């Protein structure tokens, strides 16, 4: 029987296709794209590897704000496939990371040479890798700052408008110094009202000095309440937007700051520590509650707690807390009021219980 020509044609075509398929090399599958969900370690390792491998064509990396994908800027189109093979999304850009850093260095040198020439309305500059530009931030409406930014900038520089100028921030920490016009005391604890107003609580014989109060980083605010004698607590309203209210108490050279977690009262015989700007961190035990103390001159204070943790002038108002032992979390106990002796020979110290002060002012502690 004669073989069908049509069948023969199909047979030959199929054999040829099979031969071509066998001859073509298999295309390697690309790895899954790295995203924010891939984990910090995986993303960081890929960023570092690509920065090293791409060298001068590298122009920064970032997680895309829309897709979350790790994106890498590249100035050389021939390296795009290399980025994809590493699990990142490449983006072809005009300027390398080194060029962008050079633009920033140019402005840094201008500022270092003549810092007074930089208008206060110029709040700073930074490299935005996502847009491949150096960005100069200028307070909205400040014509002098805008003119400086435009004159100082070069190709690859963008001016952005911001609402506010930055300010230095500093922490209000228990036990650190606070200065009144006529003397120095120490921060007790940070607290706030139900409306969110912030306060520093310290000894009343300190706040009775009145006026504006300065801390380690500048002005905190003004005295807004004081009770002494009979009690020994007072409050300072925190009006500074630069001062950050913290739950911390300074341990000075004895260790890192401890964190106030609440205000449960330590039992008689239990360990307490106090922090103050004169003698730092000192510890002892609670010896009695509700002691009446006569400071002389008609200054009698009721309801103080007696301890054998020493203190000296300037420590007044500072934080008394439960002894943290080997931990870092404490319970607020009170405000250093006064005592006898010193930290060389030892002595007796009294503190105003913090819960009474909080109740009197309707405040809650800043805790962490």
UniProtKB/TrEMBL annotation:
Active site: 205, 232, 316
Signal peptide annotation: 1-28
Record keywords: Disulfide bond, Hydrolase, Protease, Serine protease, Signal, Zymogen
Disulfide bridge positions per record: 185-206, 273-283, 310-343
Origin: domain of life: Bacteria
GO biological process, one term: proteolysis
Family: Belongs to the peptidase S1 family.
The protein's name in its UniProt record: Serine protease
């Amino acid at each position: 029987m004669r073989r069908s020509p049509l069948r023969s044609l199909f047979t030959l075509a199929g054999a040829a296709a099979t031969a071509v398929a066998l001859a073509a090399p298999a295309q390697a599958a690309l790895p899954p794209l790295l995203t924010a969900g891939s984990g910090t370690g995986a993303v960081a390792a890929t960023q570092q590897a690509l920065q090293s491998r791409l060298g001068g064509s590298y122009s920064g990396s970032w997680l895309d704000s829309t897709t979350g994908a790790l994106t890498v800027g590249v100035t050389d189109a021939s390296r795009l496939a290399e980025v994809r093979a590493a699990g990142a999304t490449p983006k072809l850009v005009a300027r390398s990371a080194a060029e962008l850093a050079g633009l920033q260095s140019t402005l840094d040198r201008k500022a270092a040479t003549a810092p007074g020439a930089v208008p206060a309305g110029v709040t700073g500059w930074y490299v935005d890798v996502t847009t491949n530009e150096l960005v100069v931030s200028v307070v909205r409406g400040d014509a002098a700052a805008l003119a400086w930014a435009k004159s100082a900038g070069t190709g690859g520089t963008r001016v952005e408008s911001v609402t506010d100028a930055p300010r230095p921030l500093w922490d209000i920490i228990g036990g650190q110094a606070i200065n009144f016009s006529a003397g120095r005391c120490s921060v007790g604890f940070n607290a706030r009202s139900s409306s969110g107003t912030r306060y520093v609580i310290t000894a009343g014989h300190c706040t009775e000095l009145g006026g504006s109060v300065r801390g380690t980083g500048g002005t905190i605010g003004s005295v807004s309440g004081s009770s002494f004698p009979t009690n020994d607590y007072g409050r300072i309203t925190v009006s500074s937007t630069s001062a950050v209210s913290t739950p911390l108490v300074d341990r000075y050279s004895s260790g890192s700051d401890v964190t106030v977690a609440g205000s449960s009262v330590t039992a008689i015989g239990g360990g307490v520590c106090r922090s103050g700007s004169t003698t730092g961190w000192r510890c002892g035990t609670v010896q009695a509650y509700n002691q009446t103390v006569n400071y002389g001159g008609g200054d009698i204070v009721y309801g103080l707690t007696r301890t054998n943790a020493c203190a000296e002038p300037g420590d007044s108002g500072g934080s008394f807390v439960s002894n943290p032992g080997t931990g870092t979390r404490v319970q607020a106990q009170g405000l250093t009021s006064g005592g006898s002796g010193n930290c060389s020979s030892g002595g007796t110290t009294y503190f105003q219980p913090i819960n009474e002060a909080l109740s009197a002012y309707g405040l809650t502690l800043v805790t962490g």
